[in-house]
């Protein structure tokens, strides 16, 4: 037997396993001082372990443990009950609040998409009414001038109509009248009025063009907001 | 695992105070002894024993009925003692734990040997000490220790082997290797 085998035997003996080759062990221990010291220490350890007194729990410990266990169980059950009640109460309140909200909410009002998601135009403040552009103003002014001119032309035509009956007609002899071939009938007064109006049309056109040129020379007007 | 344990646990879960008392009486000796040997302080051992049983009853539903009850309880005890030792190491040491848990004077001259073994156990690493105490002083087999500490059996054997070597080395250094040393 060598030292390592002796060490293995030592631990087996501490495990409670009986030695397989007692004679070989004794021979090795007789010759090896170090292994003999280990073996002697192991024997002392085994003896010392037998001398240990098993601690005895105090008599009151059992009662104390049972009391604390039952009290702990009671406290945990009570906490669990309180937790259950609290959760049930909270759930009831939540349901009641939800129900009252749904009850009080008008059912026929359906929010429009703009109510849910307002656009930028809704958020911006309302602007002042748009001022007419220069082009519109000029066109309006031109129409007014044309109207005034047309009215003047109409007045002229009317005066002409009133003057026409006062013009003396030449006295013709019956023979000459009979002898002369009659001219075709003159044009009606309406056609004469239209002719005068058509004659004045270039005047009104010229006046309109002159006014347009005059307005074109005027610098553009600044918006009211910028002047402030 | 005996069917008796499963029945006892079921009664405890139903809130049977008598079953609670029975379970405490059955295991309090082992739990208390283990606490005493690991903590080396009687008052701490009493407090931790009470705490261990509180934890046992709180987590009794998690116990696997197909496995024995004792290793499960021992595992809880060792874990609780380890936690307690960690907390105690942060506090100033107020008492001489060794004196507090001395098993009383031995009837013969082997008192010195017992004291040396106790000192050697105190110097061991906590996991080595737990394995040594469970095997040599609580009489637990390797398999139960492995189940309690949630380690492989091989690891438990290695730890026990090293723990023994350290204790024996201390005994050798202290001169307790003479054949003349009183051994009955």
What labels would you give this structure?
heterodimer; A: 228 residues; mainly alpha; rod-shaped; B: 184 residues; Rna Polymerase Sigma Factor, Chain: A; Arc Repressor Mutant, subunit A; 2 domains; 9 helices; elongated
Largest interface, per-chain counts?
A: A-B, 32 and 45 residues
Anisotropy-based shape of chain B? elongated
Classified in CATH, the superfamily of the largest domain in chain B is RNA polymerase sigma factor, region 2, helix turn helix motif
β-strand percent of chain B reads under 5%
Q: Could you tell me the strand content of chain A as a percent range?
A: under 5%
Identify low-pLDDT runs of chain A: none
Q: How would you sum up the global shape of chain A?
A: rod-shaped
What do we call the CATH topology of the largest domain in chain B? Rna Polymerase Sigma Factor, Chain: A
- The total strand number of chain A stands at 0
Helix content of chain A: over 70%
* Rg of chain B, nearest Å: 18 Å
Low-confidence stretches of chain B: 94-107
Main sheet overview of chain A: none
DSSP summary: helix tally of chain A: 10
Structure classification of chain B: mainly alpha
The oligomeric status of these chains comes to heterodimer
The average pLDDT value of chain B, as a whole number, equals: 84
Mean pLDDT of chain A, to the nearest integer, reads: 77
């Amino acid at each position: 037997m060598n030292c390592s085998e002796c060490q293995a035997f030592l631990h087996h003996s501490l495990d409670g396993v009986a030695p397989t080759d007692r004679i070989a062990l004794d021979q090795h221990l007789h010759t090896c001082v170090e292994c003999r010291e280990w073996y002697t220490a192991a024997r002392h350890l085994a003896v010392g372990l037998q001398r240990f007194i098993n601690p005895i729990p105090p008599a009151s410990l059992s009662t104390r443990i049972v009391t604390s266990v039952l009290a702990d169980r009671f406290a945990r059950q009570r906490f669990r009950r309180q937790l259950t009640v609290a959760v049930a109460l909270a759930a009831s309140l939540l349901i009641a609040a939800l129900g009252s909200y749904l009850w009080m909410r008008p059912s026929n009002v359906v929010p429009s998409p703009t109510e849910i998601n307002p656009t930028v135009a809704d958020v911006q403040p309302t602007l002042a009414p748009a001022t007419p552009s220069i082009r519109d103003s000029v066109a309006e002014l031109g129409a007014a001038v044309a109207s005034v001119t047309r009215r003047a032309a109409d007045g002229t035509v009317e005066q002409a109509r009133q003057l026409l009956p006062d013009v003396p007609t030449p006295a013709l002899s019956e023979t000459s009248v009979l002898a002369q071939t009659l001219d075709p009938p003159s044009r009606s007064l309406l056609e004469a009025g239209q002719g005068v109006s058509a004659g004045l049309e270039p005047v009104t056109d010229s006046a309109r063009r002159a006014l347009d040129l005059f307005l074109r020379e005027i610098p553009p007007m600044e918006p009211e907001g910028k002047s402030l | 695992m005996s069917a008796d344990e499963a029945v006892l646990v079921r009664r405890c879960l139903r809130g049977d105070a008598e079953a609670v008392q029975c379970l405490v009486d059955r295991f309090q000796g082992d739990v208390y002894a283990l606490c005493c040997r690991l903590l080396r302080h009687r008052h701490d051992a009493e407090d931790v024993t009470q705490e261990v049983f509180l934890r046992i009853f709180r987590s009794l539903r998690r116990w696997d009925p197909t496995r024995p009850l004792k290793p499960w309880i021992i595992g809880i005890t060792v874990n609780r003692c380890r936690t307690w030792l960690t907390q105690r190491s942060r506090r100033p040491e107020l008492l001489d734990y060794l004196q507090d848990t001395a098993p009383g004077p031995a009837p013969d001259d082997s008192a010195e040997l017992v004291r040396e073994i106790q000192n050697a156990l105190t110097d061991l690493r906590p996991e080595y000490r737990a394995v040594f105490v469970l095997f040599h002083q609580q009489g637990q087999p390797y398999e139960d220790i492995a189940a309690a500490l949630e380690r492989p059996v091989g690891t438990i054997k290695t730890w026990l082997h090293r723990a023994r070597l350290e204790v024996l080395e201390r005994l050798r250094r202290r001169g307790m290797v003479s054949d003349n040393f009183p051994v009955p």
